[in-house]
Design brief:
This protein is mostly helical. The chain has two helices and no strands. The chain is 78% helix and 0% strand. Keywords: Membrane, Transmembrane, Transmembrane helix.
Length: 65
């Protein structure tokens, strides 16, 4: 009886079943997010000083006029 009631409740509320193809896709987007964040940190660490110099040079040229 409880199993039937829970099954009907799950179907009514739209809970995903065990055969849902979208279930378990969370590790994919988590991996993409972590890899993107890692790339941003690595590029920032390597190119940060050079980008800062380029920005300061550009601002000095603009302010000189």
């Amino acid at each position: 009886m409880w199993t039937t009631l829970l099954t009907l409740l799950a179907a009514r509320l739209g809970w995903p079943g065990e055969d849902d193809p979208e279930r378990g896709d969370v590790p994919g987007w988590v991996l993409v997010t972590l890899m993107t964040a890692g790339l941003v940190v690595a590029i920032w660490a390597l190119a940060g000083p050079a980008l800062s110099t380029v920005f300061e040079t550009a601002m000095n040229r603009v302010l000189a006029y």
